[in-house]
Amino acid sequence: MIETVDLHKSFNGQQVLRGVNLRIREGEMLALIGKSGGGKSVLLRNMMGLMRPDKGRVLIDGVDVHNSSTSQRKSLKERFGVLFQGGALFDSMTVFDNVAFPLREKWKLPEEEIRERVMRELSMVGLEGSENKYPAEISGGMRKRVALARAIIHNPKIVFFDEPTTGLDPLTAKSIRQLIHSTHARLNFTGVIVTHEAGGLFSIVDRVALLHDGKIAAIGPPRELLESSDPVVREFLDAYLG
């Protein structure tokens, strides 16, 4: 379970997070939506421990992400998988080596086991036969699939998705959403998806949280938000969903 308690963060006097309180249940998929530049990625980075809040706490299974021992933080981060916006693949590495990277760097597994696991995950994301290609040689949608395979290669308990469908055409975006959904069903991780593209992701998440003016303005199942009469919710959804 992930919990943020009265989380505040500002940059150069500009307050971005103004007391975010949010609970994400174990095993659920939650979409974090809101306007571009509204603090969604800042909140995600605070959850991941990549950014320290000015005030407040981030708790994962009761452990404070920012105020715990080095060994506790290391143990927590080993449970994370991350799909960064744009994929963040290594251009000089093949598809295989990109996916294998966490297993080699963090877990020092034997090469035979690494190959077995990487090839299995590449098959699961529909990339059989692409292991020897480089990121520049594959499409944007394929790069997202590689990034997803790398994020889940170590069977993480929590996966963070930062704008996973940004920059993709509608059909490719749909395929990536479906892949995220099937991967979640297979591995049962806790997932947090940051996006400003509300529509399609509503079909694959358990709950949606709307970040507005630095706080969680609304949270609930997708249908509940879609039927909401709250003016803040309506303004956002009407703009993105018509």
Brief rundown of the structure:
With 242 residues, the chain is α/β, with parallel strands linked by helices.
Please, what is the average pLDDT? 94
Biggest sheet statistics: 6 strands, mixed
Instruction: Give the tally of β-strands.
Output: 10
Structural class: alpha/beta
From the spread of the alpha carbons, the general shape counts as: globular
Roughly how much helix do the residues carry, as a percent range?
Answer: 25-40%
Based on CA atoms alone, the radius of gyration comes out at: 18 Å
Order of helices and strands: EEEHEEHEHHHEHEHEEHH
Distinct helical segment count: 9
Strand order of the largest sheet: 6-7-8-3-9-10
Distance between the termini: 34 Å
Are there runs of 5+ residues with pLDDT below 50, and where?
none
Structure write-up:
- With 242 residues, the protein is α/β, with parallel strands linked by helices.
- It has a domain at 92-155.
- The protein has nine helices and ten strands.
- The strands form two sheets. Strands 6-7-8-3-9-10 form a six-stranded mixed β-sheet. Strands 2-1-4-5 form a four-stranded antiparallel β-sheet, with helices on one face.
- Strand 1 and strand 2 (14-24) form a beta hairpin.
- The radius of gyration is 18 Å and the shape is globular.
